[in-house]
Amino acid sequence: MTMTTPASIFRCFILLILCFFSTAPKACGEVWSLDSCISYALDHNLDVKGALIERCRGSQSVTEAKDRFLPTISAGASQGWSYGRGLTSQNTYANRNTSSTGWNASLQLPIFQGLSALRQLQQARASERNLDLRLENVRDEVTLSVISYYFQALYCREMLEVRREELRLTQVQLKRQEALLESGKIPEADVLQARSQVASAEVSVVNATGDLDMAMLDLKRALELDDSTPFELAAVDTDSLPPLPSADRVYARALESNSSILVSRSGVEVADKSVSTAMTGYLPRLSFNASLGSNYYTMSGVVSDPFGRQMRNNLSKSLGFSLSIPIFDAFSTRNQVRQARLQRQVAELEVERSQSNLLHTIRQTHTEASNALARYNSSLVAVEAARVALEAMTYKSTYGRANATEWEQARSTYTNALSEKVSVTYQYLLKSRTLDFYNR
User: Which of 216, 81, 111, 221 is nearest to 155 (CA)?
Assistant: First the structure.
């Protein structure tokens, strides 16, 4: 059972303050790993901060529910003056000026509230646990978002290197073609075609640079970093890919630990407490009341007792019990119970929906990872074959035994194979890391 005290609420606010003010930037030039990006995002993301505020509000609701067991004490005082004609003790009217002073204090102690206060406390604690899980769910969503943005940025950076390699190959080929043109071994059209290929490769480099810049902006936004912050990503090992866990095992683990599932199950518990709270409207309520008061009265033309004597003589005390038995409340309680039960059915459907969505996500991610792994193994063979073919075609082109079109086809096949290898590599790494996240 979650125990909420003023100390726990204080700790909650301290964590919130630290979350808002722990904004020390990374050192300039420091390399950011995936884990460091996730850690930084969890400390600075606005959605996480908002969920933390909601968690503090849940703690405050528990405190308010506990306070319903306490008595209420109130005190008051009054002072009044009266002028003009008034009825005297002789049943005649005369001009009289009067003044009166009074005070009172009262206490009301709830003895039995139809279990309302107890069940409201239980409901508040269940809601607090639900908010704890919602906070974890937000953190998990931020984590998955950062993982996606991180691997997208790495992919764009690797694709930029592929485009630069493509530009380098076309530039080398252009120099080779210009040398062959000077020696009269090829026509000028081949040089013009080579220059066109260089220009096209330069455009590809510009586009890849733009894609990398956009990917870095998306990642910085997820981390709540300023766009101008120096930012360099750590490379990941792409030579040995991690093994892929089975989808069924990942799903079985996720059912026990995934925050979205736990949130939906907690929603059913909150709905149960809401039904119990609504049913307290059928029960009677008993409370204890006590009051104490006195007054001081003066009238012009009449000798009045001193203030202290009147206060002592006019002192009044009262004790009593108050019992309220609900007989007919225009079906208000019945309607509240029905609404609460309907909400519980909605919560149960949300559990089923969350489990179905989780199963679909895990199976889809596993299928995409398996396909990416198969394509990766094929791409290794394709890259090596395309590289050997390009080297052979370059040798032929150097001695005039292959034209520019044949070399360009070999070069295009090689760079396309490199692009495919980069694409499936980072797709597999992303899906594999996502499955590891669900398999915690």
Answer: 216
Confidence of residue 342 (pLDDT cuts 50, 70, 90): very high
Q: Taking the mean position of all CA atoms in its chain, how far away is CA 51? A: 6
How far, in Å, CA of 52 to CA of 360, rounded? 29
Q: Per DSSP, what are the bridge partners of residue 293?
A: 104, 316
Cα–Cα distance measured from residue 276 to residue 324, given in angstroms and rounded to the nearest whole number: 20
Q: How many CA atoms lie within 13 A of 263 on its CB side?
A: 17
Distance CA 120, CA 117 (A): 5
The Cα 218–Cα 223 span in angstroms is 9
Instruction: Quickly list DSSP for 296-351.
Output: EEEETTB----HHHHHHHT-EEEEEEEEE--S--TTHHHHHHHHHHHHHHHHHHHH
Q: State how far the Cα of 211 lies from the Cα of 110, in Å rounded to an integer.
A: 67
Average pLDDT estimate for 127-141: 95
Contact 85, 56 (CB under 8 A): no
Q: How many CB atoms lie within 10 A of CB 65?
A: 21
CA nearest to 47, candidates 129, 152, 137, 149: 137
Tell me if 120 sits within 8 A of 63, measured CB to CB.
no
pLDDT in tens, 416-435: 999 999 999 999 999 999 99
Helix axes 6-21, 46-67, angle to 10 degrees: 170
Nearest to 180 by CA among 351, 10, 401: 401
Kindly give the interhelix angle for 34-44 and 46-67, rounded to the nearest 10 degrees.
50
Taking the CA atoms of 394, 395, 396 and 397 in sequence, report the sign of the dihedral they define. Answer: positive
What proportions of the chain, in percent to the nearest 5, are helix, strand and coil?
65, 15, 20
Output the pTM of the full model.
Answer: 0.82
Strands 72-82 and 98-112: antiparallel
Instruction: State pLDDT tens for residues 186-245.
Output: 788 888 888 999 999 999 999 999 999 999 999 999 999 888 888 899 988 888 889 999
CA distances from 53 to 22, 46, 49, 113 (A): 16, 11, 6, 31
**Contact criterion met (CB below 8 Å) for 323 and 290:** no
Instruction: State the residue for tokens 């915690």.
Output: 440
